[in-house]
From TrEMBL:
Family: Belongs to the C19orf12 family.
Full protein name: Protein C19orf12 homolog
Superkingdom of origin: Eukaryota
Length: 131
């Protein structure tokens, strides 16, 4: 991995560790989505369309309350092998549309990009942990 890749990876780690808004966005995104979907399915089976709506709302609430620890995500990222780090960097740079460190910081100032960023990070983590 080239020096610029390491610098960009380090910047991703720095941003994740220090950006409180990103932490709030990231906390439990995957779990919340799973709980919402599960609640909708169970509610739909039990009560039809209205049950699906109620189940989705209850599932979302449960997902929010049981959100996973953000620090665990950072720990997994720190332990990625070089190939996975490089894939993470490439994916983030593609989303941001730039290889510049400041571009990533500016891109993450837009709150709607937080979820996109976290979903990309989680996809890399999921792939890495399945090896």
């Amino acid at each position: 991995m080239a020096l610029t890749m390491y610098a960009y990876y380090d910047h991703i780690m720095f941003v994740m560790a220090t950006n409180d808004q990103l932490k709030k966005s990231a906390t439990g995104v995957a779990k919340q989505t799973a709980w919402t979907a599960s609640g909708s399915v169970v509610g739909g089976v039990v009560g039809g369309p209205a049950g699906a709506l109620v189940g989705a709302v209850l599932g979302a609430a449960i997902g929010y309350w049981s959100a996973e620890d953000y620090e665990a995500t950072i720990t997994v990222l720190k332990n990625l092998n070089d190939e996975d780090k490089q894939e993470l960097v490439k994916r983030v740079q593609m989303m941001v549309g730039s290889t510049g460190l400041d571009a990533l910081t500016d891109w993450l100032k837009i709150s709607t990009n937080h979820r996109i960023f976290i979903e990309a990070v989680r996809a890399i983590i999921s792939k890495a942990t399945q090896k």
